[in-house]
Write a structure and sequence with these properties.
Elements: H1 13-33, H2 39-59, H3 65-96, H4 101-124
Length: 125
């Protein structure tokens, strides 16, 4: 029996996408208005980039069929976009505040790498 239109593992789909869109907006705003890297935004970056996809894929697992494919095609770019925006913000903010860029940006680069790893594990499942 199909669960189209009923309750399924997709209960977190819309909140996930809304949170990722919110984080993209936060990092676009940060690029324009925040002159130095702030710890709170860096933690939010790691959570949005690696934590949310991991939570989504572990707590509501769907890896097969059209729903699994759709989750990858929509979810991976939705989590990588704010991840890359956050990494860009950290690099630009570090340069603006005369800090070494790589030593400031490596945790954000690691978060983007973790995001890619989470989606790679999802594809391997």
């Amino acid at each position: 029996m199909s669960d189209i239109g009923g309750s399924s593992n997709g209960a977190f789909d819309l909140p996930f996408l809304a949170l990722q869109a919110l984080m993209a907006l936060v990092f676009v705003t940060a690029l324009l208005a925040v002159p130095r890297p702030l710890l709170g935004l860096r933690v939010a970056h790691a959570a949005a980039c690696a934590g949310l996809p991991l939570l989504w894929l572990v707590a509501w697992p769907v890896t097969s069929g059209i729903e699994g494919a759709g989750r990858f095609l929509i979810g991976a770019p939705a989590s990588l976009f704010p991840g890359l925006l956050g990494l860009t913000w950290v690099a630009v903010a570090a340069r603006r505040s005369d800090r070494p860029v790589w030593s400031t940006a490596w945790p954000s680069a690691a978060a983007v790498g973790a995001c890619v790893a989470v989606w790679a594990v999802f594809l391997a499942m």
